Amino acid sequence: MSDLLRLEVDKGVGVLRFLQPNRRNPYSLDFARELAATLAAAGEDDTIRAMVMTGGEHFSSGGDLVGFRAEIAKGSRSTQKLLDTANSGARAAFNFAKPLISAVNGVCYGGGMSLALCADMVVAAKDARFCQVFIKIGGVPDTGSSWLLQQRLSAAAARKLAFTGREISGQEAYDMGLVEECVDASQTEDTAIALAREIAANPLFALMSAKRVMRETAESGFEQALEIEGRAQNIMMNAHDFPEAMDAFTEKRKPRFNDM
After folding, report:
1. Most buried one in 40, 90, 162, 167, CB count within 10 A?
2. DSSP class of residue 39?
3. Ranges of CATH 3.90.226.10 domains, the chain
4. Which CATH superfamily, name and number, covers 5-200?
5. Helix or strand or coil: residue 10?
6. What pLDDT, on the 0 to 100 scale, is given for residue 250?
7. Which residues is 7 bridged to in the sheet?
């Protein structure tokens, strides 16, 4: 069993736990590799309908600078390989086909913040600590932060976080629209799991299709959105769940979905 990650599954919800909160769950190369592999497997597991990522006391302190240093010292080729490996973790989270929720307590810095924002929704503790720390170490936003921030905030607000490297609390993140829910630290994980259970009660194919549509239309114009929605809805209306829902509505009963 890994000492970095553990996946638990219960009643349709996967909970992916980061297992080094005493080290603030550094975003190491081994962590990125295991994260990508675990999410790939979870994506193929139909018993998982929604997923929560949580680091316990701390979400993630970001890049493992001590571990990265040896790779960077080898030159640009090795550094690029390092970046590609780190990006593989963020890419796996962002492209996870099912709804994904980050539950954030404690520190959520740098690449760890990128990872949290790769999820569809973020539940944060009021006293969580978010920081685009890259500028403080002479770097630029990476693991997708430059894009992810601007999807959730105005471009100017995103630049402010990136240029200052200022730490903000979970409450401040909620107030500015960076995260979707803000609760006491003792409630973060339970709130995220409850949200995942609510989502997981819906048909799996519809959930996956809805996520794909929402992602595609977010980067389109209105007319393109209508076309994207139409293509997906055509499939859904002729799939097994939509006709069953129509029958159930007519017969005034609860739908009996096939993929539940």
Report:
1. 90
2. H
3. 5-200
4. 2-enoyl-CoA Hydratase; Chain A, domain 1 (3.90.226.10)
5. strand
6. 86
7. 16
Q: Cα dist. 101→40, 50, 86, 192 in Å?
A: 16, 8, 20, 7
3 state SS of 35: helix
Q: Name residue, tokens 């909970």.
A: 15
CB 122 within 8 A of CB 178: yes
Measured CA to CA, the distance from residue 206 to residue 241 in angstroms comes to 8
Local confidence pLDDT in tens for the 260 residues of the chain: 689 999 999 999 999 999 999 999 999 999 999 999 999 999 999 999 999 999 999 999 999 988 888 888 898 888 899 899 999 999 999 999 999 999 999 999 999 999 999 999 999 999 999 999 999 988 999 999 999 999 999 999 999 999 999 999 999 999 999 999 999 999 999 999 999 999 999 999 999 999 999 999 988 888 888 888 888 877 887 777 778 887 887 888 888 887 65
The dihedral over CA atoms of 108, 114, 118, 119, expressed in degrees to the nearest 10, equals 0
DSSP code of residue 240:
S
Of 176, 175, 150, nearest in space to 162 by CA: 150
Structure tokens at 206: 């519809």
Placement of tokens 């794909």 in the chain = 212
Q: Crossing angle of helices 29-44/76-94, nearest 10°?
A: 30
Q: How far is 209 from 252, CA to CA, in rounded Å?
A: 26
Instruction: For tokens 């597991």, name the residue.
Output: 45
